[in-house]
Amino acid sequence: MDPILICGGGIGGLSAAIALVRAGMPVKVLEQAPSFSEAGAGIEIGPNAARHLATWGLKELISAFSNEPEGIQVYDGLKGDLLTTVPLGKFVRDRYGSPYLVIHRKHLQYCLLEAAVELDGLEIETGFKLTHVEVQLDGVTAKSEAGGTAQGRALVGADGLWSTVRGCISDDEPQPSGVTAWRALLPTARTPETADKPYIGLHLGPHGHVIHYSLEAGKSTNVVAMIKETINFDGWASPGKRDDLLPYFDAWSDRVFELLERSKDWHKWTVMSMDPLERWGKGLVTLIGDAAHPIEPFMAQGGAAAIGDAASLAKAVAAQPDDISKAFRAYEATRQTRATRIQKASHQRGRIYHLSGPMRWTRNQLLRRQAPETLLTHYDWLYSPVK
User: Fold this and answer.
1) Can you tell me whether residue 319 is helix, strand or coil?
2) Longest Cα pair distance anywhere in the chain, in angstroms?
3) pTM of the predicted model as reported, rounded to 2 decimal places
């Protein structure tokens, strides 16, 4: 039997490969990079994604590399006042049956890759930059820039924001959202004491916010600053100069300014958005992750949603293994509504984070007065097991 081809060996692609092979399908992953890189920084894994990773046998391996924050401390970015502490840790595990974790992206990819290479029926080819797809009645042929070909039973596009596979289905392309994300990894020795390590720190201000949390068993702190700005997109990230970032935060609290000032090596990228696609697939081709539904990062659900897509895809294929096209349509029907809801919720949270003037004051008062648990339980629809 020809394998199901997966274009892209990132979080979504490797998750789909693991889930499909565990469901009994042979799989071949086509990764355009010559080797798996260690680029990136921190990533949050909500209980909706941690649940699937545990099901795939990755619980212990993920635990060895991840941290489990006790909560999210939300501050007024200008004054430095603590507005509320959203509980994570035991509260999340008790309510949802899975933890809320933070991990370095390279470690998550390492864990997925370790699990993938141990599976029979899974092949990975690197250096395969997809340029063209030919869909037949009984299969798919993928062609690379170097002239190589791969024959498969079907094709899953897990090739990210600038997906080549998406071009088989839609002409839609991501557009700049007007927000630029700056990220840095700060060694613990340079981290200010005010960066409370057992917690995710979230600082809200007019037209921007800053988030930070401990990584790598406390060896480093992941720092992300988001501001209203549009830059020319150039790959995953471009180098950023600290002196260009700091003026945006002149009026912010010393807590925030000191954290940003101590972070020397910055990278930045334009946050992209895209209206929900009319459809994710056609025939023997479907999409997952950012290729299907780019999600603005305000809910930290980009990677988690891709993992959820992978689990849902494998379930649909296992239910109809003899009709992959029908299985793909069932998967899309299951996931499209949910992904669109996450996209919209994340966009709305970004607007709330960046409020200014009287609306900022109103938001702060609501955060102070609301029971902290309810700020999380509003998202039961996202974090609870899908029935």
Assistant:
1) helix
2) 63
3) 0.96
